[in-house]
Design goal:
Length: 324
């Protein structure tokens, strides 16, 4: 993103926040430019279709519900878009600057003053509390450029619970949000490991475009790739495991009313308990979910996963016994 585009995005944000209007002098102070340049930014935005009102002489603000991005959403559709964006905002730990810009533009396009106001407040919080450091903004921009152009990129990646960095030469295929946690993942072919790998974008410390290009496999589908994943980790059919969990009767309603995984199967037993089964790729991601149920779930299979939970519960009990 160019410096001018960043200035225009910041101008939009400042005009949006100003209830009674902001002067070109105040705008220039925020942007670090002179008032005449700030005024040109306002004119450019007006030419692009933004409705910028002059509340009183020299005081400007953005009309929130008059966006150049006309989605023609019905009220109930706007509510769904609002909920989806709110969920992503709440699960985002660090937001790149262009995410803030995109969220602001979509907020305006909702065309509902109440929804625009609430979503704008959420985006403002994200911008103030969870902005991404500049080096990670550069990483994101590089990854997206590589993905758009089909260009190979070299990354420095930090594995979980490790400080050392691994270098991968990768072909970016898909961006996917985490389901039960924060963060966004990049699914890419690692030329270095000659395998399809998943990289959490927050752990990519540097990204460098290379001159080589690649072709994404035409048959690669995120729905097919992730249909057996609990979150973002995927696996081949021959290494899938069948997970069987029994939930007691007093939590049966909670289990039956929610969908925890697309391929799950649930059966209410004669004693009111629920047998839950799903074929998944690995146990790492489902582990924390099962732990969160505590004594309200019994692992039936696979046996190795059952023993992991038993050992966890024993260690937890020992912590309390040792401190009595």
């Amino acid at each position: 993103m160019t410096n001018k585009q960043k200035a225009l995005d910041t101008t939009i944000t400042l005009l949006r926040r100003s209830t009674h209007g902001i002067t070109t002098r105040e705008l220039a102070d925020e942007l670090g430019c002179n008032p005449s340049t700030a005024y040109r930014y306002i004119q450019e935005l007006q030419n692009d279709g933004y409705s910028i009102l002059e509340e009183e002489r020299g005081h400007y603000r953005l009309e929130l519900t008059n966006s150049p991005y006309h989605l023609s959403l019905r009220p109930k559709e706007a509510v769904i878009i609002y909920l989806a964006l709110r969920r992503y905002i709440r699960q985002t730990s660090r937001a790149p600057h262009f995410m803030i810009s995109a969220l602001n533009r979509i907020a305006d396009a909702l065309q509902r003053p109440d929804l625009v106001s609430m979503l704008s407040d959420s985006v403002h919080y994200l911008e103030q509390e969870r902005t991404m450091p500049n080096n990670h903004n550069v990483v994101w921009e590089t990854l997206i450029e590589a993905w758009l152009k089909g260009q190979v990129v070299e990354i420095d990646y930090q594995k979980a619970r490790q400080n050392d960095l691994d270098t991968h030469i990768i072909e970016p295929y898909l961006f996917e949000p985490a389901i039960l946690s924060d963060g966004t993942y990049l699914i890419a072919h690692s030329q270095t490991r000659n395998d399809l790998r998943t990289f959490k974008t927050d752990r990519i410390h540097a990204a460098r475009l290379l001159s080589a290009h690649y072709q994404k496999p035409p048959s690669l589908s995120p729905m097919d790739l992730l249909r057996h994943s609990w979150g973002i980790w995927y696996g081949q059919e021959d290494i899938l495991q069948t997970f069987e969990l029994r939930f007691p009767a007093h939590v049966a309603n909670r289990v039956m009313e929610q969908v925890f995984h697309p391929n799950e199967k649930k059966q209410v037993l004669t004693d009111g308990s629920v047998m839950w089964t799903a074929r998944l790729a690995g146990e790492l991601e489902i582990l924390s979910w099962v732990r969160s149920w505590g004594p309200d779930v019994q692992v039936i299979a696979p046996e190795g996963f059952k023993q992991t939970i038993i050992n966890d519960l024993r260690r937890a009990l020992n912590i309390y016994l040792d401190n009595e």
